Amino acid sequence: MKKKYTLKVYPSRMGREVYRVIEILGEHSLDDLCGAILSSFDFIDEHLYEFCMDNRMYSDCSYQSDPEDDEPSTSERIDNIGLEIKQKFFLHYDFGDDWMFTIVVQNITETAKKMAPTVIKRKGFIEQYPDWDEEEDDYE
């Protein structure tokens, strides 16, 4: 049997207006989780990120997408990080724009099924680059 995690994910301070509920297996990595989160919000995956297990950016208790020395890596499997029901942690994405996604562990169950990370509920919409104007990139 495999562990299946049900996670509510929302941009910080937007939990009632904009969120996604994602199911993911414990055998998937934090990289897979980041990809599922970004995809669910229609973000372009082109920046560094970290999972902040103590809910603070750049802390010693985080998993890095580009680790240095002995830093924990986002290639770690979800089963190996010790998540518990009701636990809250952050995905800090794009160290320039500092997107913060709050992740709450809603449920942990057993399953025999193999599955890709799946969005099972969604509400609302946000834009990754709300002030970006495509005309600004048109160079003559």
Distance between the termini: 58 Å
User: What's the shape?
Assistant: globular
Binned strand content: 35-45%
Query: Structural class of the helix and strand makeup?
Result: mainly beta
Gyration radius from CA atoms, angstroms: 16 Å
Task: State mean pLDDT (0 to 100 scale).
Answer: 90
Catalogue the unreliable spans. none
Total helix count?
1
Number of strands: 7
Structural overview:
By secondary structure, this protein is mainly beta. Helix content is 8%, strand content 35%. The chain has one helix spanning 30-40; strands at residues 2-11, 19-25, 49-52, 62-64, 88-93, 99-111, 118-123. The chain is globular and about 45 Å long.
Topology readout:
Layout: E1 2-11, E2 19-25, H1 30-40, E3 49-52, E4 62-64, E5 88-93, E6 99-111, E7 118-123
Antiparallel strand pairs: 1-2, 1-6, 2-7, 3-4, 3-5, 5-6
Question: What attributes characterize this protein structure?
Answer:
1 helix; seven-stranded antiparallel β-sheet; 140 residues; globular; mainly beta
Put the structure in a nutshell.
This protein is mainly beta and 140 residues long. It has one helix and seven strands.
